[in-house]
Amino acid sequence: MAVDTAGHARTHLDLKSAQLPVVAVMLKTTDAAAAAADLAGRAADDPDFFDNDPVLIDLTAVREEGGTIDFTALVQALRMHRTQPVAVRGGSPAQMEAARAAGLAEAPEAAPARAQPPREGAVREVIREVEVVREVPVAAPAPATVLVDKPLRSGQQVYARGADLVVMAVVSFGAEVIADGNIHVYAPLRGRAIAGARGDTSARIFSTCLEPQLVSVAGIYRTTETELPDNVRGKPAQVRLEGEKLLIEPL
Q: What span, in angstroms and rounded, lies between the C-alpha atoms of 243 and 39?
């Protein structure tokens, strides 16, 4: 009896490439205690910013500094704020060796940034010693405008890479809308709105009912801890940058 041995053997797993959202923590100091304090402050401003995200620690900005980094303390601080640090990149040979000794994997260097078109969407929120970048991969190129006509509930996120974003329904508290260009919300805006995510300082946020949890343009942001003036709160308004100052004006 003939036996066919040319077929593929059955296996119990497959190996495939995967692209996952990741939070890059870009250190601006070798002082782990100072970085931990800034993370605590960032978490206090927006407790829901982290949600057990995998974290990549980027050492590019401190590569040339001579101080040692206490990676054990840094990893502990990150885990306290609902993140999962897994890798490190961009450091000096001594820094990378110390990171590996702390159980962190070595990630490849970031590809050089290009002005046009943007390759990866990112939301930048800069704090004193740590820069947090949430990278949100998108499978297909975005059109000039992304249109959303359904309500966005808490925990949902929409990102318009290289495009403006138009939302025709309510953006609920805890939801997040992100665009490399402008954001238009023709309904109550109660969640987080981040325009100019790739650094476009001319981007704006428009809403027919401005009640946001957070607004940001090109990395300059404002939270609800600073109450909006009566002439824009719950009314048609726009958010724009003037220099490095965030302006909120009635429409």
A: 26
